[in-house]
Design goal:
By secondary structure, this protein is an alpha+beta fold. It has helices at residues 3-12, 41-47, 74-80, 85-92, 103-111, 133-144, 152-159, 164-186, 194-206, 267-284, 293-310, 320-326; strands spanning 18-22, 28-30, 33-34, 55-59, 64-69, 96-99, 116-119, 147-150, 211-212, 217-220, 242-246, 248-250, 253-254, 257-261, 354-357, 360-363, 368-371, 374-378, 383-385. It has twelve helices and 19 strands.
Length: 394
């Protein structure tokens, strides 16, 4: 499905027939330096454009797409470069490009025949500050249009089902990530610090014109009980497991794979890893089209509670607090443009969805964390493990 088809599908599902959305803005890193830029995934899905500051107007009544070029000073163009209208129009399959100074006038013109406009207003409950672009656009739209609807949920629902073209790109991301893991596993005994593993994976990605899809996690020993440990600066020890959670981003789409390795594991480390490995296998086997998400979650809980019981960590399976102490995160998330891509709050799994399966057991008092994660495509008849062939062995 190309960008035109995506836009048409979205418009057909909305009342009003008009969508106005924005790219994220560039934000400050320090001084006169911008932070590394990652596009708002809904805007990218609709336009394939990964530049900050742009807007898109999708007028379904005319089957017409307008891109709005952000204002850039001559100094900005000298330092950061620029992109031509022809390249942008071809990339986004847009009909026209207008300047930012004409944007509000165009909106007021559209408001004379459209009382409802839809926009993408991504919201989250995390501790960091949101990118200001979506809220700024929404405020402008509310001054001009009678009704402003948030179509974020509909966009998430649509982009949860990956096209063949999207799957081809995801496969490339997964294949590159798998190769990097295989190289690291082969040379594991030669590393002395976490950052050496990160450096080699980064090198392998950049040699293929790819980047990390998220901050890489290389967590040895007790560091692995911190789920998003990203310092990656500790010394490695042969008897301590190393949890590696890394994914490449190729062509705008992410992979997300985790393995836990150890050069000279103790019996206890082998026990814990074996329990996670079995849970990982059993949970993946549950997946398929039309599986009710709620049923999946209940079966996952049963599998993980049994694993914790056999390890002597959970005495009472109704003890939710202890259960969540040792398995504190979700078993799965969507995967696509975002590494934590929304699946659109589905009631059941559908063919074309790509999600992770990532059981983990984390024992702070023992200084051990183990996680195994693969990327799974739901198919018409079952599932496909996109990262199959990468050993889960310790």
């Amino acid at each position: 499905m190309d960008t035109v088809s995506r836009r048409n599908t979205l418009i057909a599902s909305l009342k009003g027939g008009l969508v106005v959305a924005t790219a994220y803005d560039a934000v400050q890193l320090s001084g006169d330096m911008a932070a590394p830029f990652l596009q708002e995934s809904g805007f990218y899905w609709l336009t394939s454009l990964d530049k900050p500051g742009w807007k898109v107007i999708i007028d379904g009544s005319r089957h017409h797409t307008t891109l709005v070029r952000p204002h850039r000073t001559d100094v900005e163009k000298v330092f950061d470069g620029d992109i031509s209208d022809d390249i942008v129009k071809k990339l986004a399959q847009a009909d026209e490009i207008i300047s930012a100074q004409d944007f509000e006038a165009r909106l007021r013109q559209l408001a004379r025949k459209h009382t409802v406009v839809s926009t993408i207003s991504p919201k989250h409950d995390y501790h960091f500050v949101s990118n200001p672009a979506p809220s700024s656009l929404e405020a402008l739209l509310r001054r001009i249009f009678a009704h402003v609807d948030d179509c974020s949920a509909k966009v998430a629902e649509l982009k949860a089902i990956k096209s063949d073209e999207e799957l081809a790109v995801i496969r490339k991301s997964v294949a590159l990530t798998r190769h990097a893991f295989e190289e690291i596993r082969h040379n594991l005994a030669t590393y002395h610090h976490e950052y050496e593993i990160e450096a080699d994976m980064t090198k392998m990605f950049r040699f293929k014109n790819a980047h990390h899809a998220y901050d890489p996690i290389v967590a040895s020993g007790e560091n692995a009980v911190t789920l998003h440990y990203i310092e990656n600066n500790s010394r490695l020890h042969k008897t301590k497991p190393i949890l590696i959670d890394v994914g490449a981003r190729v062509g705008g789409y992410a992979a997300d794979i985790t393995r836990t390795y150890c050069v000279a594991p103790s019996r206890r480390v082998r026990e814990i890893h074996g329990a996670v490995e079995k849970a990982h296998h059993d949970i993946i086997a549950l997946l398929g089209p039309n599986l009710v998400v709620g049923d999946y979650m209940q079966q996952v809980d049963a599998i993980m509670k049994q694993a914790l019981t056999e390890l002597g960590l959970l005495v009472d399976k109704s003890d939710h607090e202890t259960y969540r102490k040792y398995f504190p995160h979700a078993i799965s998330h969507g995967l696509g443009i975002d590494v934590h891509d929304s699946l659109g709050s589905p009631r059941y799994f559908r063919p074309g969805m790509v999600l992770t399966v990532e059981p983990g057991i984390y024992i702070p008092e023992e200084g051990i964390g183990v996680r195994i994660e693969d990327d799974i495509l739901i198919t018409e008849t079952g599932y496909e493990n996109l990262s199959r062939g990468l050993s889960t062995a310790l």
